[in-house]
Design a protein that fits this description.
This protein is α/β, with parallel strands linked by helices. The chain has two domains: about 5-185, NAD(P)-binding Rossmann-like Domain (Rossmann fold, 3-Layer(aba) Sandwich), CATH 3.40.50; about 190-275, N-(1-d-carboxylethyl)-l-norvaline Dehydrogenase, domain 2, CATH 1.10.1040. It contains twelve helices and eight strands. It has helices spanning about 15-25, 40-55, 65-70, 80-85, 95-110, 125-130, 165-175, 190-210, 215-225, 230-240, 240-255, 265-270, and strands at about 5-10, 30-35, 75, 90, 115-120, 140-145, 155-160, 180-185. The chain has an eight-stranded mixed sheet with strand order 3-2-1-4-5-6-7-8, sandwiched between helices. It is globular, with a radius of gyration of 19 Å.
Length: about 280
């Protein structure tokens, strides 16, 4: 299968990284999935295997197609080794600016000068993520959405230094992944997180003040506005802690009261009610 990037390294084997690795392998790329421990890597590979098996069980794909995708994915805990021969590196590590910037600074001297360096950050400033990284023209944001194999949107984020050649090539690859790319400039929250988080925070404020139940607030957006999922259920899926961190970042960067996190959200995070991953958020999972 011919595609724009034949060899892709995905750094971070969590939910997002595993999904990114899967869609890249489905598009025909050889993928190296890396994380800091073998346990994390194997969990990521298991996520991919389980997702593909569900497709086989439902008759949406064949066992041969499942095996072909898995055969194109290798795993490692060696970040430099995973990236050295890649044509594209996509990071999906935790949303910590120092971590992401350090990773790209390290890899810029390891990969080929033509290797695209892409960040899956949902809201961090890419100018800061890529600060001091050699070859800024090949740096770009590739913001995927959860679950990656099912969600059609791919938000591409350009910095002032990103070249048009990089934008064109990554856009073409996004389409080969079966995604619908949109292009936004590097700004706090980009387009998707800025709008999505604002809506989610207002839904929490409505719940906090007793406007309606969580179920009815979500139903209003699903049935009234055609959203596939309500903002409170989506916050549970993303993780209250993740969205709280984004809200605090956007409040600081944009100086806008709409991004100030409600006290209910802070209490729930403090109590460990983070959503689906802990079994309790605005819903029981």
């Amino acid at each position: 299968m011919s595609n724009t990037y034949g060899t892709v390294a995905v750094l971070g084997a969590g939910t997002m990284g595993a999904g990114i690795a899967q869609v890249c392998a489905q598009a025909g790329s050889s993928v190296v999935l890396q994380d800091i421990t073998d346990e994390f890597v194997q969990k990521g590979l298991a996520r991919i295997r389980d997702f593909l098996q569900k497709g086989v069980d439902k008759g949406k794909t064949t066992a041969q197609q499942r095996d072909d995708v898995l055969s194109r994915i290798t795993t490692t805990t060696d970040r430099a080794g995973a990236s050295r021969n890649a044509q594209m590196v996509i990071e999906a590590v935790p949303e910590k600016l120092e971590l992401k910037n350090g990773l790209f600074r390290e890899l810029a001297g390891v990969v080929a000068p033509t290797c695209v360096l892409a960040s899956n950050t949902s809201s961090l400033s890419l100018a800061k993520v890529f600060a001091g990284v050699a070859g800024p023209e090949r740096c770009i944001g590739m913001h995927f959405f959860n679950p990656v194999p099912l969600m059609a949107l791919l938000e591409l984020v350009r910095t002032d230094a990103t070249s048009q050649a990089t934008i064109d090539a990554v856009t073409a690859y996004g389409k080969q992944l079966g995604k619908e790319p949109i292009l936004v400039k590097d700004s706090p929250g980009f387009a998707s997180s800025r709008l999505g988080v604002c809506l989610g925070l207002e839904a929490i404020r409505m719940l906090e003040s007793g406007v309606a139940s969580a179920e009815d607030i979500d139903k209003a957006m699903v049935l009234g506005y055609g959203h596939p999922m309500g903002p409170l259920k989506l916050t549970d899926l993303v993780g209250l802690d993740v969205r709280l961190a984004i809200a605090d970042y956007l409040t600081k960067e944009l100086d806008h009261p709409g991004f100030k996190a409600p006290e209910l959200m802070r209490r729930m995070v403090a109590d460990g009610k983070l959503g689906k991953k802990t079994g309790q958020g605005f819903y029981r999972w």
